[in-house]
Design goal:
Number of domains: 1
Number of helices: 4
CATH superfamily: Glutaredoxin
Strand content: 15-25%
CATH class: Alpha Beta
Helix content: 25-40%
Length: 178
């Protein structure tokens, strides 16, 4: 389990249009919002990434860089990016599932063709959203076992404003006995 205020696992992979993404070298003003999505086969992911693409400029104005990442290969990631329609949204691909597990993401087995007629991969990660401070420590994490009911990026922007104005600390860091 990842712990707030502690370093996150290494994350480096190729993107569709921004070269190699390396979280340790991303150098945001405040943080990087890492959005792990299931893949091209997931219609909910397409809708979610459209929402992210629509507010990425607002995140950047708040000092937060964004990236969407999946274990899809480059071809599938490109199709998803075209479907989403925000060329400025960074999209990473070929996430090793071993790295997904290090980040605490749940893994699922493919179960055939989805409602949009695309075959699920044999194995893929479920969604996760992580805000990682510029020093590569975890600020917050949302990890899901299902594709449904995702956190809204507009709400995150409002919370981010409060966090920055009040120097609000990362929470959930206690690991002692209870």
């Amino acid at each position: 389990m990842l712990i707030p205020r502690q370093p996150v696992p290494r994350l480096a992979l190729e993107t569709l249009s921004s070269g190699t993404f390396d979280l340790s070298r991303d150098n945001p003003e405040f943080a990087t919002l890492v959005v792990f999505y299931r893949g091209l086969h997931c219609p909910i992911c397409a809708t979610y990434l459209k929402e992210l693409g629509g507010v990425s400029a607002e995140f950047l104005e708040s000092g937060v860089k964004t990236i969407a990442i999946s274990s899809d290969n480059e071809s599938c990631a490109r199709k998803m990016a075209e479907k989403v329609g925000y060329p400025e949204l960074r999209v990473g691909y070929d996430l090793p599932l071993s790295v997904a597990k290090e980040w605490g993401l749940y893994l699922s087995s493919g179960r055939g063709t989805t409602s949009i007629g695309i075959e699920e991969p044999a194995l893929f990660s479920e969604p996760g959203v992580f805000l990682v401070r510029k020093d590569c420590t975890l600020y917050f994490a949302i990890v899901q076992t299902m594709p449904f009911v995702r956190p809204h990026f507009k709400e995150m922007l409002g919370a981010l404003k409060f966090v920055q104005e009040n120097n609000y600390p990362a929470r959930g860091e206690y690991t002692g006995s209870v």
